[in-house]
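sry for the spam today, last one i promise. struct tokens for design, 500 residues
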């Protein structure tokens, strides 16, 4: 990963986050990538550096030897490979481009990592780890004779450390038609840092910092990786599209991007050490751009998890049918005009629906969730915790909130959202969370009733057909009620989307 910040100069492109679609039952299951095999590639990169002046840098013999090693593996596995040359700084550089036969070339998914090191060292974490992990994933594609829906193209970039020169040369070489065929680019740069974090490129700008979201579709690439890490119980955090790696030339021309990153020279905070383990106050990679970036400078657990995440992303994104397009969405990170108590008949006070950053409450388990599905905010019944769990709950009352008007197109339409309803054991089936669509008529499309049992808060998802409202201007009405008496009832809604 290059140290110098690089600016695309592109205007901000608003990305619409898409709902994650799990692989269909008929799709091949994502494989478990062998850590031993990935580390064997790292050993080869180390040996190449040892034999060539201690590095694998642009214009040096160690880089071309690395490129030939990767190309030889891919040629033997049945890929169509190209050693694309370019010139920078008076030296010839090379990108290795490898296409897997089949798939829709008009819907190409690219997976890339930079192969070069700095001159100071062999570059094993930066970026032998990303290069080795995508190489082993590509070889697994061959072993399984994968027949993806999308066309798969893998790339190993040269001269990234000198300013993304290889990836920029590749993007510049494409015609506008060829660029339009690339529907997504995954970048993996430093995925085995010895004091690791687990960062995902922030495609939907849910962190709300830095340069903003990636091109439309980036949020879906991020969501796919997030789903994998969630499945293994590993928390992730966003990292900004700051232009430090090879996604830069892709997002500059509007190609969606995503990827993982385990940290470079930045210092791990106490909060991050609590979240992920490791040592607070120390760099994620203390050997960043140094001679000590050898095969001993890798965290096996982080490398193994990221290699499996790469395979999951490839299998999920390339084998399954692309998810439906979002035509309206609200993640509640900004105010979009939801109206509380739209009919003026609500009875809730402290526990009324509001948009905000929720505070967690517990009573015989989690009741109000302090974590959202994405970002910091959601819709919640009384976001404050108070001094007791019941201070800001519905408490025998009814509350409602209504979306702004949504103009629906024609066609098959789905309403997707995340939700929870939590209550104590003194609740009943009179307590509820309901979602209605209000157009030329009003239809209840979702309902979760309470019961006389303790129910802890846990995010779930709903996906309902609202095609009957196609072509109308509609509003989404969310209602929650504690109608059985003064039981403890809490509810939340997040990531509401309409897709076609």
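last one done:
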């Amino acid at each position: 990963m290059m140290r110098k910040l690089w600016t695309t100069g592109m205007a901000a492109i608003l990305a619409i986050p898409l709902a994650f679609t799990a692989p269909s039952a008929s799709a091949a299951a994502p494989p478990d990538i062998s850590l031993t095999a990935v580390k064997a590639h790292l050993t080869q990169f180390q040996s190449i550096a040892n034999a060539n002046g201690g590095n694998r840098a642009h214009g040096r013999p160690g880089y071309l030897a690395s490129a030939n090693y990767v190309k030889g593996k891919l040629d033997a596995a049945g890929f169509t490979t190209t050693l694309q040359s370019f010139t920078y700084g008076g030296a010839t550089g090379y990108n290795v481009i490898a296409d897997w036969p089949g798939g829709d070339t008009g819907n190409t998914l690219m997976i890339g990592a930079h192969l070069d090191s700095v001159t100071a060292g062999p570059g094993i974490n930066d970026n032998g780890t990303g290069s080795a992990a995508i190489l082993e994933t590509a070889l697994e594609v061959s072993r399984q004779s994968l027949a993806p829906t999308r066309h798969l193209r893998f790339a190993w970039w040269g001269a990234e450390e000198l300013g993304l020169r290889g990836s920029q040369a590749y993007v510049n070489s494409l015609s506008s038609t060829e660029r339009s065929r690339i529907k997504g680019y995954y970048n993996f740069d430093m995925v085995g840092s010895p004091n690791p974090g687990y960062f995902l490129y922030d495609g939907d700008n849910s962190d709300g910092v830095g340069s903003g979201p990636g091109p439309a579709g980036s949020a879906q690439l991020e969501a796919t990786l997030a789903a994998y890490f969630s499945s293994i119980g590993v928390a992730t955090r966003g990292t900004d599209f700051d232009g430090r790696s090879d996604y830069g030339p892709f997002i500059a021309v509007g190609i969606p991007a995503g990827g993982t990153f385990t940290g470079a020279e930045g210092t791990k905070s106490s909060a991050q050490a609590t979240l992920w383990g490791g040592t607070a106050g120390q760099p994620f990679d203390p050997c960043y751009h140094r001679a000590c970036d050898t095969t001993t400078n890798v965290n096996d657990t982080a490398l193994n998890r990221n290699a499996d995440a790469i395979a999951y992303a490839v299998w999920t994104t390339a084998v399954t049918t692309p998810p439906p397009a979002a035509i309206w969405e609200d993640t509640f990170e900004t105010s979009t005009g939801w109206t509380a108590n739209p009919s003026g008949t609500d009875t809730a006070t402290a526990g009324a629906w509001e948009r905000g950053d929720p505070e967690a409450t517990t009573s015989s388990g989690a009741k109000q969730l302090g974590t959202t599905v994405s970002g910091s905010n959601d819709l919640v019944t009384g976001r404050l915790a108070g001094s007791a769990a019941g201070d800001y709950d519905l408490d025998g009352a009814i509350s409602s909130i209504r979306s702004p008007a949504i103009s629906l197109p024609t066609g098959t339409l789905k309403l997707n959202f995340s939700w929870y309803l939590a209550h104590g054991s003194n609740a009943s089936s009179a307590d509820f969370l309901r979602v209605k669509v209000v157009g030329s008529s009003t239809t209840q499309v979702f309902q979760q009733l309470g019961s006389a049992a303790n129910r802890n808060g846990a995010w779930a998802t709903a996906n309902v057909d609202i095609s009957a409202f196609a072509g109308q201007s509609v509003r989404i009405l969310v209602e929650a009620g504690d109608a059985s008496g003064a039981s403890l009832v809490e509810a939340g809604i997040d990531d509401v989307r309409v897709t076609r």
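The chain has nine helices and 22 strands. ok im logging off now
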